[in-house]
Each structure stands twice: as structure tokens, then as C-alpha cells.
Amino acid sequence: MKQALQIDFVSDIACPWCAIGLSSLQQALKNLDDSVDATIAVHPFELNPDMGPGGETIVDYLGKKYDRTPEQIAETQEAIRERGASVGFTFGPRTRIYNTFDAHRLLHWAGLEGKQLPLKLALLRAYHGEGKDTSDHDMLIQAAQSVGLDADQARNVLASGAYADEVRAEEQHAQAMGIQSVPAIVFNQKYLVSGGQPVETFENAIKQILAEG
To answer: pLDDT digits over 113-153, tens only?
Structure first.
């Protein structure tokens, strides 16, 4: 008999390790499919809440935030590409970082429509795989439509500012829980795994949680 497992995945679309972590987690769940019945809910976290229109180049942003040279940034991106490839996620030509608040609002609405995880995956691929602008409403609507959501409803959500309060409240809840970096993965509301961990790490964590359950 399969055991139920609630997974709360706190992340930002702009975060490459979140894409890696979600891919690793999904592979771990696939490997444990005979023993676990998992539900994944995604929750917002903004790495760049003050990012303005048009975004900023990755080199400029990481250079200022972490005091990295362009060469160091290139090395890190190559390591990220390799880690992504190991779990089936393809990183493409990302050159800029964008604001993600409207994308998080759309994801909140998608959760009400039962399409949150598919939209999250579509947005991760659009940004990290194709370098698309996560603040661009046309792109967000297209992503929503690609997973079966209504384009007109998506447009209305984005234009109206809907779910802004809900997103802010979720972000504050994550901060109150002590989450300061992402991805942060909470199992059954009490076990925390942080970072874009390998598949084996997630498998072992899930096995231990199920054994204790």
C-alpha cells in the first residue's frame, strides 16, 4: 500500500538550483513510485523582489551580489548545466535575470485550477531553457495556455494584480519558518531538505520519512 506524502516546494523561477532540485525530486518520486503517493505544492520565494522592468544581465547581477568575476560566473553556469543534464533538465542561453512576482501570482491562480505543478515546470523550462522574460505577460499567458489553462483568465489575473496579497502572505510564512534560501522542500509539514540535492539524497530522505510515518 502506498503512503501519502505532502511536499511543499518553496522556490523561485529565477533560481537554477530550484529547477535542478525539482527535477531531482521528481526522479526520486518516480523511483519510489511503488511505495509513495506524493502531492507537490509549490510556494513563492523571490530572489530579486526589487528587480525592475527589463531585468539585469546575469553577469552584472551576480557580480554585484556575490562579488564574482565573469570567469567565475561562467564556471558556475557550466557546473549548473552539468548538474541539470544529470537529472534531465536542459539549461539554455540565459543572459538576464527578471522579476518573478507576476509569475508567482499566476502560479497561485494555477493552483486553484489544479495546474500549478505543470505551469511551474513550463515556466522553469521557458526561463532556464529558453531565456524567456519571466515578467513578460505575453510569455506567462502562453505558458499558461500550454498546460491547458484559459488564456483570457490568465490575462485577467495578470492585468488585475490578483493574488498579490496571497503571494506576499506565503512569502512571509516562508520567512517565518526560517527559510532564507531556495529551494526549500518541506515533507509532511515537518521535515526540511534544502538545496538542489541529488536524486539519491531525496530518495533517502523520503524513505526515512515514510519509515517514521
So the answer is: 999 999 999 999 999 999 999 999 999 999 999 999 999 99
In tens, the pLDDT along 91-103 reads 998 999 999 999 9
177: helix, coil or strand? coil
Parse the chain into domains and list their residue ranges. Answer: 3-212
Q: The dihedral of CA 133, 75, 70, 61: what is its sign?
A: positive
The three cell numbers of residue 103 are 509569475
pLDDT attached to residue 184: 99
If phi > 0 it is left, if psi is from -120 to 50 it is alpha, else beta; for residue 92 that is beta
Per-position DSSP letters for 103-127, written without gaps between them: HHHHHHHHHHTT-HHHHHHHHHIII
- Burial label for 183, CB within 10 Å (0-12, 13-18, 19+), is buried
- What Å distances lie between residue 61 and 73, 98, 134, 208, CA to CA? 10, 10, 16, 39
The architecture of the domain spanning 3-212 is: 3-Layer(aba) Sandwich (3.40)
135 CB-near residues (< 8 Å, 6+ apart)? 51, 53, 55, 98, 99, 100, 101, 102, 103
Q: What Å distances lie between residue 55 and 36, 51, 58, CA to CA?
A: 40, 6, 9
pTM of the model: 0.96
Would you give the DSSP letter of residue 30? H
Contact, 206 vs 29, CB < 8 A? yes
**pLDDT below 50 — which residues of the chain?**
none
